[in-house]
Amino acid sequence: MPYREVTMFEIKEVVRLWLAGVAKKQIAARLGLDPKTVRRYVKAALAAGIHDETTLSDERLVVLMAALHANPGRAHGESWARCQDQRGFIEKLLLQRVRLSKVRRLLVRHGVRVPYPTLHRYAVAELGFGRTAATIPVEECGPGEEVQLDTGWMTLLEPDERGQRRRIRAWIFTAVRSRHRFVHPCLPETTASAIEACEAAWAFFGGVFQTVLPDNTKAIVDEPDALEPRLNRAFLEYAQARGFHIDPTRVRHPRDKARVERTVPTVRDD
Fold it and tell me: Contacts from 220-223 at CB under 8 Å and sequence distance 24+?
């Protein structure tokens, strides 16, 4: 079985950040590593005699590299090996800013089947893919309590009898707890289409959620505000009739509805 390759750049950056006083969990988040890996690097650095900036030399880094290679750690499986075989192909697509979910589908078309979690771990560990900001855990809600709602442009339809192609939008519902997703396409983004999409979503999920977290679409929110948004009256009456609360997100704060925000490009790719 192949082992994860330890690079000099990765080791030096971990040690450099640690010497600068950055917490180990923050280092792991920045570099896309496991906190256990960071602790192992730091422990090996101390054993190699690195304890401040003055002792961070190339000679000691070589000793550190040798110590880490002597203990390669947990072996990876066959899926990781397939990723390694396709490294050039994956790296090329990521440099072209192709989404990782699309990369996986292209791999499948070439006869290479890799689970998405493995592909994601490989891309983060070997190719520097992913966010560099620290992740803040958010407490999960209960089943049926919250659903996040977003809209976005999707794709062009086939030409009509006049040769014109219309671009469709979609209402995207993502259950916060289960991550199950429901997509309802529409042409105009209106309050009527929002209500129609909600009814279809409730049928799909098997019930009405207690709280809906929409973006600030004019179909639902007349005037967005961080504290006192003014909701569309027709949609508010619908929410009261169906018994759910509306909690609009702040403008230009995608993390307020991170679960559905991250699925919009994926839905467009599909």
Answer: 220/191, 220/194, 220/246, 220/248, 221/248
